[in-house]
Design a protein that fits this description.
By secondary structure, the protein is an alpha+beta fold. Helices cover about 30% and strands about 20% of the residues. The protein contains twelve helices and 22 strands.
């Protein structure tokens, strides 16, 4: 292939790969630019596990049914209505039909893991996880003749009004007849996070204590540039898929194994040893992604998840062992928490528990009375040694500030859709996710819009060719 392709895809994760594959299948020549080295390819997609899928009846790895309306209501609830319904429904419907295409490109599925609560009906898991999915797509892309270049971060984009002209990589100018932007959010850009989150009333800079669950390569360079060039923005820069993760996790690429999944089985206290939110509000896949933000609002941006031995075996064990103690006062001491306040908090909670029939697979009747905040479900006294504590920090998965788009995945400038510049994945997820998150929906968005963007980018080339020959 000549240096300058029909379609240029910028990014190397799920959305970028879906776009590259669709554009190539439509007959366009495609060049994909991945900022990371080959060993780190795939962006945040390498850390994913599953895809949230609508289905009206049982399907291979999915049990029962998960109809469109229920998926929509789940999304509506977690976003608090901050979502574009038309685009959200487009994603939901696309999630029902993409899997045969994915299988054709080498992706394999498996049933939900036994420790992954409540997802057997809603989420199709990738065999081998996100890394296997990314590898399958890259193999398929290369077999189809997609040209892939690693360690090729795009420094800037050249536009003519709202039309894509060229991309610059390390001083080299690459032109293409259409382009798909799928280069992720800005979560690895520490300065931008600091600017977005600012300083709180305690004089802290909260984002300085954030860990990044995924790739270090999502610097938001092109996002910042496109916004400066007049592309329409969507979303709030402080909103993100943000999870409470083990405070011992690395700064980047800790991935799924640093998540702490026992929150709903115990209590969470802040640095002052006080509870601050209902740990049993809803099923964990619908609630795990609010806890990062909750912890970010606490002093020092830390929290502590406290459980007793009754919880062991009921959640996916994290990569690091919890701090273990034979008594609650000893646990407080080991976690560096004020013992008197900690014991007051735990005693108040334990006394408030009204234990009915405990069932972690249902919204059960075990709740608290007379304590604030309440614990609505799965409330059982923390009274059986040994006790465990996990220190939590906010873990950012991806940011929601992005480029406004429509059902064609085109980037918008001044109310008009670009004729040849498209966007997919985290760079536009804010159209669907104004806030909140529910497990697997990021991959649903990336897959749906990646496929649309690739198809539209190829069509823009063919349209351009027809005009040229007219």
């Amino acid at each position: 292939m000549s240096k300058d392709p029909d379609v240029l895809v910028i990014g190397g994760g799920n959305a970028a790969l879906c776009a590259a594959l669709m554009a190539r299948e439509a007959g366009a020549s495609v060049l994909l630019l991945e900022a990371a080295p080959r060993a780190w390819r795939g962006g945040n997609s390498a850390h994913t596990r599953n895809l949230r899928c609508m289905h009206d009846a049982p399907q291979d790895v999915l049990v029962d049914a998960y109809p469109e309306e229920e998926f929509w209501q789940d999304l509506l609830k977690v976003t608090g209505g901050k979502t574009d319904e038309a685009l959200a429904r487009l994603v939901i419907r696309a999630s029902a039909t993409c899997r045969p295409w994915m299988v054709r490109h080498g992706v394999r599925f498996q049933p939900s893991l036994s420790g992954a609560l409540h997802t057997a009906r809603t989420n199709a898991f990738f065999m081998g996880g996100g890394k296997a999915l990314v590898n399958a797509y890259f193999r398929s892309a290369e077999r189809l003749g997609v040209q892939v270049r690693y360690e090729s971060p795009v420094d800037r984009i050249e536009l003519d009004g709202d039309r894509f002209v060229a991309a610059w990589v390390k001083g080299e100018r690459i032109t293409a007849r259409s382009c798909v932007l799928a280069a992720g959010g800005f979560e690895s850009n520490r300065d931008w996070l600091r600017e977005a989150w600012g300083q709180n009333a305690r004089g802290e800079w909260p984002s300085d204590n954030f860990l990044i669950r995924g790739t270090r390569f999502n610097q938001g360079v092109l996002l910042k540039q496109l916004l400066a060039l007049g592309a329409e923005a969507i979303g709030d820069p402080t909103q993100a898929h943000m999870v409470a993760i083990d405070a011992r996790a690395p700064l980047y690429d800790g991935g799924i194994c640093t998540r702490i999944d026992c929150v709903s089985l115990g209590v969470v206290v802040n640095r002052e040893a006080r509870r601050f939110y209902d740990e049993g509000e809803d099923f964990w896949p619908k609630r795990y992604a609010i806890w990062g933000r909750l912890v970010a609002q606490q002093p020092g941006q830390v929290g502590f998840s406290i459980i007793d031995t009754k919880a062991i075996g009921r959640f996916m064990p994290p990569v690091f062992d919890g701090v273990k103690a034979d008594t609650l006062p000893e646990l407080a001491q080991k976690l560096g928490l004020d013992q008197a306040t900690f014991m007051q908090t735990l005693n108040d909670y334990n006394a408030a528990c009204r234990v009915g029939t405990f069932d972690h697979t249902a919204l059960d009747d075990c709740h608290t009375e007379g304590v604030t905040p309440a614990k609505t479900h799965w409330a059982r006294p923390i009274d059986t040694a040994p006790f465990y504590g996990y220190m939590l920090k906010p873990g950012v998965t991806f940011t929601y500030l992005g480029l406004k788009t429509d059902e064609t995945a085109a980037v918008h400038f001044g109310g008009h859709a670009s004729p040849n510049l498209f966007v997919a994945g985290e760079m536009m997820a804010g159209n669907v996710l104004g806030q909140g998150y529910t497990a697997g929906v990021g991959m649903s968005i990336g897959t749906a819009f990646g496929r649309i963007a690739g198809t539209q980018a190829a069509q823009a080339v063919l349209k351009g060719a027809r005009h040229a020959h007219a």
